[in-house]
Amino acid sequence: MLIRAAEMKIAEESKKLSFKTPIHLTIGQEAIAVGVATSLRKTDTIFGNHRSHGHYLASGGDLKSLFSEILGNDDGCSGGRGGSMHITSRSTGFIGALPIVGGTIPIALGAALAHKTCNSENIAIVFFGDGAVEEGVFHEALNLASVMSLPVLFICENNLFSSHLHISERQPFTRISRFAEANRIYSSEVDGNDVRRVEDLARKLISDMRHDRKPALIEGLTYRLYGHVGSEIDDLVGLNRKRDLAFWKSHDPIERELRRLLDERKIDEKGFRDIRDLVEKFVLDSWESAISGQKPHGLSLLQNVLMDS
Amino acid sequence: MTKYVDAIRLALENEMERDQELLAIGQGVWSPFYVGSSMKDLDKKFGRDRVIDTPVSENGVTGLALGYALMEKPIVVIHPRMDFMILALDAIVNSAAKWRYSLDWKTPIPLTIRAMINRGGEQGAQHSQALHSWLGHIPGLRVIMPSQPQDAYELLVQSIRSPDPTIFIEDRWSYELEGEVNFDCNLQPLALETPRVIRHGTEITIVGVGHATNLAINAVNLLEDKEIVEVIDLRVVKPLLVDVILQSLLKTRRLLVVDLAWASSGVAGEIIATIMERIDFSLELQPQRITLPDCPAPTSSSLESAYYISETQILTRINHMLRDLDSK
């Protein structure tokens, strides 16, 4: 709910042109990040991609620092030098995100190797989309993780689209877990819009990985309810999107979980409203706090290109 | 006396002994075929968990090494040929060079990439390229190019200890060169390294880029009066620091840059441009450069000898540049 509310705020502010940095919203796909996060430790290392607000927040990343970064302020999580596509929250294990598709996949292997060489139980996690499996480096990484036996969890958020192109226009199959089998990596497919199923699967896989020190892959089928980039729904962009959007909206992961909680009487309407109000207030307060920040001074332009300078 | 290649091996060996977390990873590191004797027996000494031979995945392995370095653990990636390292440019340029700046990263990224130029011997276009100028274009990288055995040792140790992603470019043509190496040298941070005068002279300054420095020295050795040429070894391609060269020009007023790479958009031109922007005195004649002809490396030996730079070619240019001295 926090991710959804935060991104709705980002979308709203984007429409108002409060900032220009390109934003890739994860609205509709939140369940995968949240379902995995509950099994993670702060000492695990998480890597994201261009669409990583959810991964950042699910790890426990600070909301105000995220907003500040998107606003290009110097107290942003990346000092106002990265924007929405370069975010980091090291203290919560979210090492960082880069926008080149597939770019962080091999980097996660190195973090996994570091965990392995110091005999810890920590693992590395990398989130990527179905477009990234079309990059050669994805296949290099799966092969390396397998032959080097690295504790890295590959998580594909298969939202069926790479920008405007549907997976059926790009690949002969819609399942990407086939590549795990080809590299002798254990994989499992899950309904990526069902946070409980994601959580159950992640808990089991991650607990195994902490001991057997081998890679694994989770493919979560999901759908982004907004466009590839920006704050529009883009229902006319991409194959069958106008038709399919209604179906996927009815499978909204947050609505689904809420209905379930109401049915199970674990929460009542009032309880839900109270939580929602609390989250929305937190988001608004964080935004208000972020917009009072400063832009970096022009004189800092050349700082931190190299460390040793 | 120590060979350049042995200096490289000893640098790695000493650093791996000193720092148990240091890893070496790359294609062919268990085989002398790929990396000469620069990794000889290191896998036996440190184990194959620390000296890791890899599948043919330049980009994946380089990205992996970056991830290890982000955990503040030092690692050396070995690319036996720069031509094949092109496949790793995404990891180098988009990831390694940008990580510190774009993510406001404040801790060391001890990633060293050994890139070998391996050319000649009729190997042709994709087994020959010297692409240091490409890398020198990128903010966020340090690009180092030793030509002398002492530097092969010293600069590699400094690169490994550097907190910045560093490309250490070595030329297989320098591998057999012998020289005195002081292994107990007092090591300063890599950031303080600059070009260095390795031969003093009075009338002309030759700046050599990597192995070109050795060709320049050989050419000077053919001169009757060896005192007229000052040879500067560039050593550091990025960031480019020209103070030492300017200092030398104050005396010689003649500049020749020799680079065993192509001229266009290259470091030889960059050196000359930077000098001309900063110089506040006049030169005897316009700066010059000797670079490779603007074509891919051929295989046939007759074409190869026309393609690569020879000592005679440098000698002829020196004489040409100094012809006005005779008339004085």
Explain what this protein looks like in three dimensions.
The complex is a heterodimer of chains A (309) and B (328). Chain A has 309 residues and is of the alpha/beta class. Chain A has a single domain (2-13, 27-290), classed as Thiamin diphosphate (ThDP)-binding fold, Pyr/PP domains (Rossmann fold, 3-Layer(aba) Sandwich), CATH 3.40.50.970. Helix content of chain A is 41%, strand content 11%. Chain A contains eleven helices and eight strands. Chain A has helices at residues 2-15, 30-37, 53-58, 63-70, 105-117, 136-147, 178-182, 195-212, 241-249, 253-263, 269-291, and strands at residues 45-47, 94-96, 124-129, 152-158, 161-162, 165-166, 186-191, 216-221. In chain A, strands 2-1-3-4-8-7 form a six-stranded parallel sheet, with helices on both faces. Chain A has a two-stranded antiparallel sheet with strand order 5-6. In chain A, helix 2 crosses helix 8 (195-212) and helix 4 (63-70) packs across helix 11 (269-291). Chain A is globular and about 50 Å long. Chain B has 328 residues and is an alpha/beta fold. Chain B folds into two domains: 2-188, Thiamin diphosphate (ThDP)-binding fold, Pyr/PP domains (Rossmann fold); 196-327, Rossmann fold (3-Layer(aba) Sandwich), CATH 3.40.50.920. Chain B contains 14 helices and 14 strands. Chain B has helices at 4-18, 32-35, 42-46, 58-70, 82-85, 89-102, 132-136, 149-161, 212-221, 243-252, 267-278, 301-307, 311-321, 323-327, and strands at 2-3, 23-26, 51-53, 75-79, 111-117, 142-145, 166-171, 178-179, 196-199, 204-209, 229-233, 235-238, 255-262, 288-292. Chain B has a seven-stranded mixed sheet. A five-stranded mixed sheet of chain B has the order 9-11-10-13-14, with helices on both faces. A two-stranded antiparallel ribbon of chain B has the order 1-8. The radius of gyration of chain B is 20 Å and the shape is globular. The relative contact order of chain B is 0.12. The mean pLDDT of chain B is 96.
